[in-house]
## 1
Amino acid sequence: ALTDVDVGPDGNMYFCVGGRGGQSSLYRVSYKGSASTELSKLDTTSVHAKARKTRHMLEEFHGHPDPKAIDTAWPYLSSKDYHLRYAARIAIEWQDPQSWAEKAYSEKSDLAAVHALLGLARSDLKGSLKPSIKRLLEVEFENLDKTGKLALIRTYAVVMSRGGKPEDDQIKAIGDQLDPHYPAKDDNLNEELCRVLCYLQHPSVVKKTVALMQTTKANVPDFDAEVMKRNKGYGGRILSSMESNPNILNIHFLFCLKDVQDGWTMEHRKAYLGELKTLMTKKGGNMFAGYIQKIRESAIASVPEKDKVYLQYLMGEIKSIDISKLPKAKGPGVAWTVDSAVKMLNEEPLVGRSLANGKKMFSAGLCVACHRFGMEGGGSGPDLTNLAKRSDYKSILESTLQPNLVVSDQFEQHELKMKDGSVVMGRIVVDEKDSYSLVQSGLEPLKLKKVKKSEVASKKGSKISMMPGGLINSMNAEELKDLVAYFVSGGDPRHKVYRSGKKLEVELISAMYGEDGNPKKQMDVRKVIQRQLDAWQYDFAITNKLVGRDPAGGIFKVLHLTYKHKGKTFTKKIKENGIVSFYE
């Protein structure tokens, strides 16, 4: 691939080729003919030459204050030449904004005002937000050409991104100004209109954008497959992306919509997440899948808690597990209490556990029927993937053995008293205009009971959990330890709970912490590290807090560590805040 090209002072052309995985080469191209190589005369009379001269004049004001800059550059803010407008704006930005802010607010030319106010926003003048938006609201959107419209919308974006959201009356006025023109017949305008209207949380932006996503088409740029095949790394990745053809415009719309709170219906959310699901099947760059997943996570996080389960049902993400095929615990079972289980877990460090058996106990205890853990599980109950990050042993065991102790509003059951005197219990997972759909057993999440709202006399929440208690009572102590380790590890096979439970025989030889290469600003921390070893802590961060003081203030420190283990001597250099690990 061509990586650079230049014409040298000797008159020869030089170019480089190469890239990742390819041989780099430098070539020189020389002219050997008899025709004159004398430089042609520079054009100084055409329109383009005059514009270039003007641009160079404006660029003389860049990088420093100049009392002549404002008067000289200002007329070019309304130039038809984009490059002159840009050069003029940058020249003005280098001047004290207090000296020209009022001139920007009162500028009569809409185009000049837009570019002046863009420059003012980039200058971060305090108090400029309200008057800037007041002037932008006077712009007649339909009278601008495409570049002018894009400049207006972009200026709104920069003004608000740097100055914050305006007051409610101005938010409404901006929406009234821009919303009638969205969607436009131009993709570039739609990109910028969507961005600003989403930021303003405009009430119609969700409906319009979701509808727009159904009509956009993926545009594939021209590319030469044979050229890309020359590099199996970069070229192969780009080629597979081109052939997969993800809809880039829709990715932009999805990103803008992810933080919009109002204006959603369940059908809108279903369409939104459906488009994300489609994009996850496409190929892109190395970070493509992660980027789409981050958009999805942000979008789901903004869904009100009361709607999340409903959405899961609409998306078909709730699974039914055949409990007859689940494994059983070996036992013998124990009538566990919270206190007895906590006592057992605290008797010794939770290490040397079995990931496979922990996963098995997740099924044996019927957890898998209702709860997600990673990518597995039914999904009708709370997701337990990060359970250990928000709960200690006692809280985990309380939720397992005494599920009625705390029932989240998100997962509470409802008691419907019917007009005929009967009572229907269950968790409302779908709330439609004329009916409720309730799940009455977490073990059968897809078996929904539909109830007409017209037949319901009253509805109230219940503090009785749908989850039965004592589901871990079929497990012996070792099996319960493996289940808790599974929660603690988050299913990560590299987690320390799966390392050997045997005490490591480590002989410390030296441990000096401080400025690298300066013994005067180092301290002996063998006793500190020995305390960690005595507590079976074989993975820990080396910090000032751990060692008790800072031996070299204001300097990045290192630990020089030497020790013996299994007859071998190890020497390590670990940076401050790095992890000291005695596992090999």
## 2
Amino acid sequence: MENSRIIELLAKKLGKSATPDELQELGRLLGEHPEYSYLEEVVQSLKGSREHVELHLPAQEVTDMGWKHLAGRLNEPKVRRLWPRWVAAAMVLLMAGAAWLFQVRKSPVQASKSVNVGYGARRMLTLSDGTRIWLNAGSRLIYPERFTGSKREVTVEGEAFFDVAPQASMPFLVHAGKLTIKVLGTSFDVKDYKEDADITTTLISGKVEVMMDNNPERDVILEPREKLVVAKVDTALKSDQPQVRYQVRSVMTGVKNNIAETAWINNKLVFNDDTFEEVARQLERKYNVQVNIADEGLKDEHVSGVFDKETLQQVLDILRATTRFDYRVEGQKIVIWKN
């Protein structure tokens, strides 16, 4: 008789008419008869439990299995022992659950993957569509295992260089902070470190459209060798009308035809009249150190130079030849002050 009682209590649970005592009784009976636990799992999945969804079962198999447990496997030849409205409720839930599972299997949710690159490192990877991406130090990329639908979308934190595989029917979208860069097939760099004041997009070849989340009517089209610089802090003409500060600049070619914005791909550092504060941040990422500038006035000094295989100490010594400062090394910490 206990099997009939289990079915009765499960039916009440389905119909949301079970009392707390009956739910407690159901838990006790299922504990004493673990062979019936699977039936409760089926019930939970059909009620939409987030903890148990049988995604691998075909829709018809879910329906058949549910009724098999209700009428066959539990040796109850007549399901009519259940109250009629419970049977109706159970049937509706079974059919709805089967249809829902079938729909889920037709439109699977794409699993997202992420790659994190620490300071002092770089990484290159190829996505499922053939797009190649170089990640700079201190960066993160979030992307789907495979691209489906009408567009390809990824998210970048930090800095990345993209060589996008052409696919006109499926545009490539890169989300970086409050910017979205739309491309069809091109190569460009995007930089959005949390500690930086600006988000930059530098186009090397092709064409990109940059959309600003809080200023959608002001999309910017970049041509090759152009760079978009967007301030992270909005200014405002009026309190209810934020005005995004942005500027399109030409990309300058430095010493030995090096482009500062993409030199990191080849493990180089290129400074073109950069502030010492910006130089310090780049040194932190490349050499995995912490740089403290003790003199505020030194932060606004401007420096230039190209560095390839130099050690951190060599870089600092070369910079010191044109900018007056001293430094000391304390493990992974560099303290710099003006002399």
## 3
Amino acid sequence: MSVSVRSRRFGVVSLLVLAMATAPAVAMARVDAFHDVSLSPEARAADLVSRMTLEEKAGQLKHAAPGVPRLGVPAFNWWSEGLHGVARAGEATVFPQAVGMAATWDVPLIQDVADTIATEFRAKYVEKRGADGSSGQYRGLTVWSPNINIFRDPRWGRGQETWGEDPHLTAEFGVAFVHGLQGSDPRHYKTAATAKHFAVHSGPEADRHHDDIHPSKHDLADTYLPAFEALVKRGKVESVMCAYNAVDGVPACASDFLLKDTLRGKWGFKGHVVSDCAAIADVFLPTSHNYAKTPAEGVAVSLKAGTDLICAEFGANKSSEIGPIVDAVKSGLMSEAELDQAVRRLFVARIKLGLFDPPANVAYSKITPADNDTPANRALSLKTAQASMVLLKNDGLLPLKAAPKRIAVIGPNADSLDALVGNYNGTPSKPVTVLAGVRARYPNAEVTFVEGTGLVGAPMNTLPNAVLCADAACAAKGVKLETFQGLELAGEAKAETAANVQVSWGRPTREKRQASTRWTGFLKPTETGVHRFTLRGEGGYRVIVDGRVVVDAWKRPADATPEGAVALTAGQAHAITVEAWQDGDRGDQRLTWSKPSQGAEAAIAAAKDADLVLFVGGLTAKLEGEEMSVRAPGFAGGDRTRIDLPAPQQSLLEGLHATGKPVVLVLMNGSAMAVNWADEKLPAIVEAWYPGGEGGHAVAGLIAGDYSPSGRLPLTFYRSVDQLPPFKDYGIAGRTYRYFGGEALYPFGHGLSFTSFKYGQPKVAKSVKAGEAVKVSIDVSNIGARDGDEVAQLYVSRGAAGAPIRSLKGFQRVALKAGETRTLTFELDPSALSVVDAAGVRAVEAGPVDLWVGGGQPVSRPGLAKPAGVFARFAVTGRKVLP
């Protein structure tokens, strides 16, 4: 043996001794190339995979990958969610929902947010890391964010998770988010980001497991794919998640065109591909795509196309189990080399995270659990929420000229935690609702809160445990709970005492439940008057009070949550029986009520006594979100069928306006709202999105004028869905600001300020050759009386066939003091000047290029003035096809 070889062996052994002493991520020290930190991640992964058995390799394809103790490989859970903060892992800093972050139009700010989220993931990982280095679900370092699908239609419930409807805005934010999550260390990721859902995925939610989308070649190249290409090429994203739907007859996770030809071939992607959860089952299930016939065939065709990791499947016949994967290899459906390739990619990612290196070699190993949810992180959340607020309308009421003496805060989202956090969320440790924010900002005012209405019905809340009794004398608290097998309250029941009328099952692990339940006891209300009752959740139910059937929804209508009303007397014990059935593998049921003091009459009375009325309404992720059953008019399966304010909210809002008091409408939602009546009648409207844990402070500060609003819409607020093509039509013609020719209520890019801006004449070359970049410089001045941020937006219009009306190709958020002027420079690369033809070919065509640089699009309507800005024009000579 040569001296150099002996020295190298000695060095590797020394590193392993150090790793054993200091790194719980290495469960068993081994003398092999896999642990040699001087080798590339690819060489180390190849060495490890070469030592694994077929069965061990097959086990690594599931998101909850088992450990391989004999090789010192700990178990690893790949599933973590970080859309706008660490999700589903307890308390964490909750930032505004993604669509709200997009409204900041502030790329550096959002990169800071993503960096902070990565820090908190590291903190959560260290906090719960196993002694062998294993990680738990939602507390790992592989983050399945960002969602860069195009929000093409406001009806899509998951549009709130995206960066809006524009490919350029989405790409810029997506790249920044990836850079923030993955960090800047040249050797190791801070966390590994995932671009999802690839591709052409945006509802309807109810049909996503079997829909086959046939996008035009133009729409693919022009709208659906550019953001993914940017995250691969510029963002260097580690992972891509393939979607549920099929594209042109082939499930996305089994698509050679998407994964092999486009992602890995044309774009040169080197990372790993993870399926959306249960998407591989969709490949073979007869109720879904039925593209393959068995789990083994499903996993084989997916891996051969380029999928590497299988997220959770439910029920029997899981393709992610070891058996079907081994069978696929042994039966020749795929080769062991193809399996090896997928497993190698997965271990490369884990090595790049530093999970097999000594902590001293990993820059991020100094992060501790104390770095989660810090005051500084919450301050960043507040800053982001403030930047996301969009002032949709203002007739001069805002900012308030003086502190009101009496404020009525009304509406279903005024004191709602759900309205702060959106979906895929963490739990804020110190949540500030709008009500709390107003009270904190105006400590000397008399602030009255009346909910007035629920989101889609009466203002329902869970019954407090204290009002439920086991006996008429209320000597004992709780109710009797009887649980029957089957759905008809028949047979022998299991009896026990429950604190409340509620049941939950299938969390965190799904479990099939077919049961029926009966709760009996007494209810002792604290108010006299008419109370309304309903049972939230899935399944049929009855509510019986004092022997009278108040609600009978045993055979529940498809689009309703029936309610019933009954008069109750404060302090009197009323006999109550609730019966319900449960059928499914995950769900919740809970009895809710509405008390007399919560209703519309009380809200209007409070408004009459106030100097200022804040109505805080909109939606929550309980109505719009991912594949769920929502029983309310205007909603279906997690999506929306209408985009106006739900009828109960609209009715109350009109009643508040009729009092003659000034009403500010604060919207909290994740998608466009057609508030046509409010725009015509009310003096001020604020779009607050789902603003995160500090959202209440941001709303109150805007109203008070503590800062000038500067958020801009990342999507179009249409007047009605009647202006749009059918939801299931994936053609872009007639939708998004780029191809919508109608009059919007509020256009993409819109947002008002408390100050005014002026744009100078742009400086740009008179002509450029096709394929050359061009610079545009322009002076922007704050000509108002107060400081404020402007969002300068640059739009390009080309007259060529296939070109949109206009496209955003540059934007900058700039802080300007009163009277200050700054010169901004935009660089337009050849792609910014290009158009896509019907064949999907992108080219820079000869001819004029029209530019608009301003604080929004150059559009107006009665009641909405065109924003400040200027036009310019230059010419392109020649033609150049772009790759």
